């Protein structure tokens, strides 16, 4: 596994909608973030499918990917992820076939099996809700649509146009062992949702590595994990900025998700002692601090977690501070490289 100084870094953008703003504002800021990430040298940026959440605007995921790709030139864009049980595999093949045709060589298709929403909304999306047990069959159907019809012994009656014959990387996403094992068995790249399920991270990643079988896609396993990273000019500033994300998680604990809130000086005025204790689950997947602290934490993380790439999420209310956080992360990686070179 690469050391932090050599590790590709990517961005997970949840298209946050701040209090007092609209989804349109979120999309403009998402484009600004994507352009900033491209300039800084981040490897890829993914957006995630969520529904019925005022604070997340990326429900029409493929549409947003197209908007972001159209405003950039080189950074890879993709889904982190498309919740496949919500959709007909043919529709996803056509959507991502369209994206790949518009922006060749830049599109990733990350797939999850959760609904990305509550059960009532899932029923509105799917009409028939299941627990994702048919995910492997849906995945197999989707993969068939991307095959070149000319290479198939029996020409298919239904083709994805566009989509058929295009080389679109498929990733499996997960927060437990199911997708990790399936990705390994199928020889696909795997991304773990460490930004909200850090307690399962090492076990799921190791299961993927242990289950991996070479395929036409990969000769060797390739694992990525998401983590929350908030970098400030100082530890104190990062702690202050981080209260926005804590409020976001608190709203999920209370089952009252809303728009993204500005940072506060004192979280103890907002949560109970029991709620504070419950936050430990999310804080386990969070790195925050000033530049030196973030560098040390990321170096330690990279040496202890078996991944090839890190995808960074960071819910910062102020757009300027959000962009600066991603800038500081790349700066400390360069410092890590320089330090290693001097040894």
UniProtKB/TrEMBL annotation:
Gene3D superfamilies: Luciferase-like domain. InterPro entries: Bact_Lucif_Oxidored, CmoO-like, Luciferase-like_dom, Luciferase-like_sf. Pfam families: Bac_luciferase. Residues 19-302 form the Luciferase-like domain. SUPFAM superfamilies: Bacterial luciferase-like. One of its GO terms (molecular function) is oxidoreductase activity, acting on paired donors, with incorporation or reduction of molecular oxygen. It comes from the Bacteria. GO terms for cellular component: cytosol. NCBIfam families: oxido_grp_1 (TIGR03558). To bacterial alkanal monooxygenase alpha and beta chains. This is Luciferase-like domain-containing protein. The gene is yvbT.
